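Minutes, project check-in
Item: structure for the 240-residue chain
Input as provided by the requester:
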Amino acid sequence: MTDDYDKIKRFLEGIPDKFQILEEGINIEVQKEYLNYSDGFERGQLPEEKIEKIGTILFRPEVPNEQKKKGLTILAHVGTISAYKQLNKFYQNADKELKHWSALALQECKMFLESELLEESIGFISTGLGGTRDKLRIYFLVLPIDGKTFDNQKHKIIGNELSHVAKELNCEIENFDFQELYTGLIVLIPMDVAVATFIDRGIQCCNEFGYFILEHYYAANTEIPDMEEIKEIIKIVREG
């Protein structure tokens, strides 16, 4: 590491996202590939001219993506301010195929910078749905009891009660998807709040207006299911 303590501190203070949760959702397969690939790299030092050269190579359209992945991972493990700047520059202009890979490399580089500053090991959390600040994004799907459907009145109760519970637990509901056969919702949940705490309490509060929500539910932080996947999820939740 060639950057001194004060320089790293000033640089990190200028980065808006001070938490270790990646805001954007990262494809799970890309995460697995990156982590497996990254494990083969040791922390290392590179002279400034070498860092700049790798940065230049990243922007050459004729360079294969596999070579660019290697360059991004190398810069991540250098863990210096100049390496971070090169990664950030590439990330801001990355195409779809390398956007998620470069996001992981950028966060890993930041992790190494902060570890150097704090003299302790720091990790980061990346999920398929991402998060913001100190919260993870979770998708929930709740179902009506067997043989029933959700009507407008039930939707209103669900919206009001879950919003009230979210406020109590410092959660943020980003979206409701009200349907007759299910209700889906996307929620940002703080790291210190268990996922089950939010949804169990929410269902309990709703059912105080008459038992109409099944106590079993679906929760995931990998992706938002499409209609075909939702049909399969409903089947699994109901059949156990």
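Outcome recorded: Residues 131-239 form a domain with the Alpha-Beta Plaits fold (CATH 3.30.70.1290).
No further action items on this chain.
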